[in-house]
Amino acid sequence: MRAVTRPVFPFSAIVGQDDMKLALICAAVDPTIGGVLVLGDRGTGKSTAIRALAALLPPMRAIVGCRYACDPAESDAWCTECRQRSEQGALKDRAIPVPVVDMPLGVTEDRVVGALDLERALSQGVKAFEPGLLARANRGFLYIDEVNLLEDHLVDLLIDVAASGENLVEREGLSVRHPARFVLIGSGNPEEGELRPQLLDRFGLSVDIKTPTLLADRVEVIKRRDEFERGKAAFVAKWKKSDDALRRRIVAARKRLADMPTPDAVLESTAKLCMQLGTDGLRAELTLMRAARALASFEQSVAVEETHLRRVATSALRHRLRRDPLDDSGSGARVERAIQAALGP
Ligand SMILES: [Zn+2]
User: Fold this and answer.
1) Could you say which of 67, 283, 310, 337 is catalytic?
2) What average pLDDT does the structure give for the chain?
3) 283 an active-site residue?
4) 15-36 pLDDT, tens per residue?
5) How far does the centroid of ligand 1 lie from the alpha carbon of residue 5, in Å?
6) Beta-strand runs (E) in the chain
C-alpha cells in the first residue's frame, strides 16, 4: 500500500496535459461519471498524474477496523462486518488518504477479488476471507497501467464489479459480499492492443495524451521533474499553495454539484449531439451531461451551459464511436465535426 508520508509530485506542477487534468478533476468532482481512460505514449506522466490527484483530494472518513474503509456517513453501503458491529455499539472513524491501488499486469484473480486466508485456515481451521485489491480500492482509485493488455477474464470481472459497486466472492466454501466502488483509471497505448467495447464503455471519459511538442514545455517538464527529484519535500512545499487552492475548488464543486441547474436546452443539445454521432444507449448522454455539470460546478458557474458541454464532449464520446470504415479520421475529429453539425459553430 502507498506510504502516506512519501512525497508525491504535486498536481498543480504538472506541465500542460490540460485534457487529462480536466478529465481527472471532473471524475474527482463527480465519481459517478465513471473512470478515466488515458491513452498515449509512454513516459507522458500518466501514473504521476493519477497519484498526484489522489494526494490532492481531502482525506476521507473511514470506519476504524473495517477492511473496506466503509464510509461512516453511508450506512446503506456498509459491509456485513460494519453492520454487525454497529449493532453492538457505535463505530469509531478516522481520516485516511484516498486509496490508489495499482493493478499489475499478470495479477491473479485471487489477488484481485480476494480469497480464502490459507494461513488462518491451516493454523486455526477458520474459513476467513483475505480481501484483495478490489477491497483496498473501495472509495478510491483503481489504476490499471496497460489496460489493453489485461486478460479477458479480469476485464469481465472488472466490468461486473464496476457496474454493481460490489464484489461477490463465492468459492472455497466462502460467500462474501463487500462494497467495491472505485474510479477506474486505465492507461494504455492503443497501438499495443485493442480494448473491448464493453470495457471502453465502462470509462466515463477518455483522453489522448502526447509528449509535449513545444520546446518551452519540454524544458519546463525536465526542470520541474529534476527539482522534485533533488528535493522532494521542498518542491512539494513550493506548490502547496496551488494544490491547496485546487483542493478547495474540488471540495466546493462537490458541494455545489447537487444543486447545479441543468437547463432543458442543455439536455436537448446533449441528446442531439449523441444522435448525430449514433452512440448506443443512454450511457453516453448521461456521462456527457454529468461531465458538463461537474465542469460547471468546478468553474463556479450558475448553471450548466452549452460551452461546458462542448468542452467535455470529446472526452465523453470519443471512445464510444463505432468504427466507420468510410471515415478514417480520428475519433476526436469526428466528435468535433458532430459538435459543429448538431450545435453549430
Ligand atoms: Zn465496513
Assistant:
1) 283
2) 89
3) yes
4) 988 999 999 999 999 999 989 9
5) 25
6) 35-40, 60-63, 93-96, 100-102, 114-116, 129-131, 141-145, 166-171, 174-179, 183-188, 203-209
